[in-house]
Automatic annotation (TrEMBL):
Keywords annotated in UniProt: ATP-binding, Helicase, Hydrolase, Nucleotide-binding
Pfam family, one: Helicase_C
Residue ranges occupied by any Helicase C-terminal domain in the UniProt entry: 358-518
Origin: domain of life: Bacteria
Helicase ATP-binding domain residues: 14-196
Molecular functions per Gene Ontology: ATP binding; helicase activity; hydrolase activity
Keyword Membrane: no
SMART domains assigned: DEXDc, HELICc
Membrane-spanning parts: none
UniProt-recorded name of the protein: DEAD/DEAH box helicase
Amino acid sequence: MLTVDLRDYQTPALAQFTAHGRLLLTMEMGVGKTVTALACAEYLLAEGLVTTVIIAVPKALLTQWGQAIAETTDVSCSVRVSRDGKRTLWPDKEWGVIIDGSPTVKARLLDEAITNQTDYILATHDFVASNARKIKKGIPDALLIIDEVSVLKGWKSKRAKALRRLQTPYRIGLTGTPVENRLEEALAISEWVAPGHFGTYRDFEDSFVRRNRWGRVLRYVNLATFRRKWLEISYRKRQSDPDVAPYMPSVVHERWLAPITPALRTVYEDVLHDLAAELNNLADPGDFDPEAYYGGESDAVGAGKVQAIHTTISMLLCHPLLVVRAAERGTNAYALKIVASGRLAPVTDLHMQPKLDELRRRVIPLLDMPEHKIIIVSRYVHMLDLIAGAFPSHRSVIYSGEITSLAKRQQLIDEFKFDPDCRLLLMSHAGAYGLDLPEATHLIHYDAPRSHGQYVQISARHVRASSKHDQVAVIDLVTPGTIEERAFDALSFKTRVADASIDGEGIDTSGGLDNDVISLSAHVRGALTESS
């Protein structure tokens, strides 16, 4: 049974789940999705309705879920002592098992857990997807919990298809961001927890989406109807809700501007001309085909070259040496071309780094105050090394998706959380999911995340009910008048789509929401016209 009390705002979710046996917990980050899901799991186990609860999570969250089970339920536990002396509770193996290790070890652990009817099996999304048939056959009465259920949003992903087919009798999906980029992502998620709830994909398109002939969304419609149907299969709580807000720190959002230098702008506009030419070369993809789109069969024609140039521009604005590194590693053909041509030399020779200089100028005064701990996030792992080098007098840890050892990940996080001399956590986008960092006072987006969902996920790492502070800050570091500024503006539109469809905010008088972000092609044309 659960050994902690649910907060008043969490208990309706338990009632909704027990009434239907399936639920999307779309509570915002930091509001308590994990303990609410475990309350549902413990109810089913206590009533004998299931023998085993399978929890599918990103690898980075395996340890966190294991500790949550030990700390909030009555399973038999042992104390683990880390190398630095930190003590944590951990479920005994007959009650909970983490599927990790070599392929042989993971297969053995799953077989043993099925045979022993272990209460909790924790595994990665990929492992559960690849072993879906064995799980369905061996544990026919399971509760399947999918944390970060937005993993199901991709229509063509083999992993998403396999997980959607795993139709256990009881299902819970967890996400604070059910709509990360597009409204139709919610349809993909709903097809797992409540197949057919929104009808067919054609029904969904006809009811809620208006596109141009090439598939670009012009407007979402009938959003109040969408929200009503969505709430039939989900439970939503926001940090700003009156019954939640007293537990949360207040959040200040800021935008720091890092103006581009004349030398860097010259190179930027040179590359922008290449992007404009490649956009013009894109073939007309023809009329939008919903069947191909929802079947995961279509991608933008010629988008590979456009993406390579766009990524190069993003790296250039972050730090020109990122472009050099990509060329050296052979990970970006366009970066290799531009470095080999010498077009980048004017800024790499001068070590032109206006964005990093602005970051340092802003952050040093914060670090002079000992109460501040700061998270700085970038999509580029090499950028984290450059940021660390900009603060030689301050201890930092670098946490990225390239760190595969669960023990090493936990060691780095513990160092930031508990060592008062460690003031900076430098984190990649890939490593950012699911971390609880209530010790931090500031989170800085050094560059734009790829999706609204990723932006919200990352921004909430320190916005927790367990925060050590009354107020925290989320900061975007932006180079104005560039593609980067457009990227942050696009994230703003995606946020409005989520607010309108999931929370009913910002719907216009006609019941919809227009896409007012100009296309990439229009932005590039406008920028080049202004500079000429």
